Amino acid sequence: MPDATAPDLARALRDELRAAQPDLAAGGAAAARALHSLHAAAAVAGDEALRGALRTAQALHDTAPGPETLQAELRRLGLLPPETQPADTPGPQKSDSDTPKPDSPSPDSSSPDAAPGLHSPDPPATVRVDVRKLDALLALAGELTSARLQLNERLGRARSGEGGAWRDVRAAQQTLATLTDDLAREVLAARLEPARPFLQSFERAARDAARQAGKRARLHVDAADAELDRHAMDRLRSPLLHLIRNAVDHGIDLPGARAARGVDDTGTVTLSAYSAAGQVTVTVHDDGPGVDYAEIARAAGRPYARGDAALDAELTELLFTPGFTSRQEVTDLSGRGVGLDVVRTQARALGGDVSLRSGPRGTTVTVQFPLTLATTRVAVVRASGQLLGVPVRWVDRAGRAQVHPHEGRPAVRIGGRVVPAASLAGALNLGASRDGAYLLVRQGEAHLALLVDALVGEEELVIKPLAFPLAGAPHLEGAAQLPDGQIVPVLNVRALRPPAVSAEAAPLRAPRVLLAEDTAVTRQLLRGILSGAGFEVTAVENGALAWEAALRGAPDLLLTDVEMPQLGGLDLTRQVRAHPQLQHLPVVLLTSLARPEDREQGAEAGADAYLVKGEFDEAALLATLRRLL
Question: I need a surface site. Which of 40, 216, 510, 521 has the fewest CB within 10 A?
Answer without folding.
Answer: 521
